[in-house]
Design goal:
The structure holds two protein chains of two kinds. By secondary structure, chain A is mainly alpha-helical. Chain A is about 80% helix and about 0% strand. Chain A has 13 helices and no strands. In chain A, helix 8 crosses helix 13 and helix 11 crosses helix 12. The longest helix of chain A has 30 residues. Chain B is extended and about 60 Å long. In chain B, helix 1 packs across helix 2. Chain B is about 80% helix and about 0% strand. Classes of the chains: A mainly alpha, B mainly alpha. At the A-B interface, helix 2, helix 3, helix 4, helix 5 and helix 6 of A face helix 1, helix 2, helix 3, helix 4 and helix 5 of B.
Chain lengths: ~240, ~130
């Protein structure tokens, strides 16, 4: 392995390299976020994705080769979703008292997310397949991609729109709620979970454990409700 | 630690099997979360003296995963490099739709939550005193 070119050929094809690169990019991003005292603009997902996108572009690595390594991190999304049961259990006394606001806010938020996204993009003349890909953008990627596929969207585009929505929500939620003078961490967390799924939930856990718990509930419930309402709304658009 | 990981994966696996088997519109991990939550509730009912969840390995593994939840979205997020063409060809409309809809959803959800909570919190408060 004296030839650096051959060493790179080995590394670029190795899952180990891209797994390590993913963790390293996130470690840098998280360190920056900490340095910025968790300022919402310094979003760790956004920074890590930008670092990796630059690295993949410079090394002309196809996304598929990158994902060979990164899939081990991606896989943990499932167990992490199951793990949301733990804070839900710990904070159940608080959650139980808020069931009425939870369901009212869920219905209002889920409908707003779908109708406003599709309405704005439609008014800009976006084609049907883009509208269908955009409609489920506020729910967690696995559900959103399934919905998108079922209604004639492009699941890969949906995945990108879902992540973008997550990052946008995580950046906007704190300044927006502060500007509105909203201090109820249940409401702030729940809004973050409805509007921006797991990335909003990650942000909510950074701020406050109760906010994180309510965001986790919102993520699960909104996935269910959006799967039910999107086909109906897209059906109206078609007719 | 081993048991904690086994419990998380086991709940996810049962969740996936239920989702596929019954054709439910909910993904397996969300059903897994509901199953684990139910199991934890049953655990404290049956054994009120059981150790607090935050002190057992399951609690430690769960809080480790959730503390690093942002990391887990990085591989999917990096997929944006494959979508640059569609994103730029639909340019401003798509960006305005994402920003506008996300802001609107945050505002509507939080306001409805607070408005309803004000009523129910007041009601349960007076229920406690009377």
């Amino acid at each position: 392995m004296s030839d650096p070119g051959r060493l790179w050929v080995f590394l670029a094809a190795s899952p180990l390299f891209w797994l390590t690169a993913t963790l390293a990019a996130y470690a840098v991003a998280d360190w920056l976020s900490q340095k910025a005292q968790r300022n919402p603009l310094v979003n760790p997902v956004l920074i890590a994705v930008l670092l990796l996108a630059v690295l993949l572009t410079l090394t002309r690595t196809p996304y598929e080769a990158y994902f060979e390594g990164a899939q081990f991190v991606h896989f943990l999304l499932g167990p992490a979703t199951v793990a949301l049961a733990v804070p839900l259990h710990s904070n159940w006394a608080t959650v139980r008292k808020a069931l009425a606001p939870i369901f009212a806010a869920l219905v209002a938020g889920a409908c707003t997310a779908v109708v406003s996204a599709v309405g704005i993009a439609w008014s800009f003349g976006a084609p049907f397949d883009v509208l269908a890909s955009l409609a489920p953008k506020s729910v967690t990627a696995a559900i959103a991609m399934g919905i998108s596929q079922g209604i004639g969207g492009n699941p890969a585009l949906t995945a990108t729109l879902v992540i973008s929505t997550g990052v946008l929500g995580a950046i906007m939620v704190t300044p927006l709620m502060n500007a509105m003078g909203l201090t109820d961490y249940r409401a702030r967390g729940f809004a973050a979970g409805v509007a921006s799924h797991g990335i909003g939930t990650a942000r909510a856990f950074q701020v406050d454990p109760v906010a994180g718990t309510f965001a986790g509930i919102a993520l699960g419930l909104n996935g269910l409700l959006t799967a039910l309402i999107v086909p109906v709304i897209i059906g109206w658009l078609r007719s | 630690m081993l048991h904690a990981i086994l419990i998380l994966l086991g709940c996810q696996l049962i969740g996936e099997m239920l989702a596929r088997g019954l054709g439910l519109p909910v993904p397996g991990p969300v059903i897994g979360m509901a199953l684990l939550f139910a199991a934890l509730q049953v655990r404290v009912r049956l054994k009120p003296a059981a150790a607090d969840i935050t002190t057992i390995p399951l609690g430690a593994v769960a809080s480790f995963l959730l503390a690093n939840l942002s990391l887990l979205f990085v591989p999917a997020g990096t997929g944006i490099i494959r979508q640059i063409d569609i994103l730029t060809s639909n340019g401003p409309g798509l960006i305005i739709a994402l920003v506008g809809s996300t802001a609107l959803t945050l505002i509507v959800t939080a306001l409805v939550f607070v408005a309803v909570a004000r009523r129910t919190d007041a009601k349960s408060g007076s229920g406690n005193t009377t």
